[in-house]
Amino acid sequence: MSDVARPFTVALPTDQELVLKVIPMPADCNASGDIFGGWVMAQVDLAGAVLPARRVKGRIATVAVNEFIFKQAVKVGDILSFFARIVKVGRTSVTVQVEVFAERFALQGQYIKVTEARLTYVAIDKQGKPCPVPEA
Prior knowledge:
Elements (H helix, E strand, L loop, with lengths): L8 E2 L6 E6 L14 H20 L2 E12 L8 E11 L3 E11 L7 E14 L12
Antiparallel strand pairs: 1-6, 2-4, 3-6, 4-5, 5-6
Pfam family, one: 4HBT
Keywords: Hydrolase
Protein name: Acyl-CoA thioesterase
């Protein structure tokens, strides 16, 4: 391992749930050869929906991307781990914090945080109208 990689390596969170693991492929690259930010955003949205869907036990829809920070580029072959935790439950909404860690192909077992985001989902009924989030 090079000294350049060490300052960025972190331990994986223990206070959040692993909700998704994925490996980006060459088809997911942008013109610069890194993974396209929109692809990462889509994966974060999927990962972020896991805990609210469990809580609601029904349909949900993404209503807000409250914050989205790209900290490091994502590379082809990185093993991405998406961790999430519910940070707020409203009457019809659930807000989730998602953190994404990359295990670089050449640095197996070492992780760097590449993205973090906060998203809000709303519970919806069969007609697509907001409905109350059930009590935990």
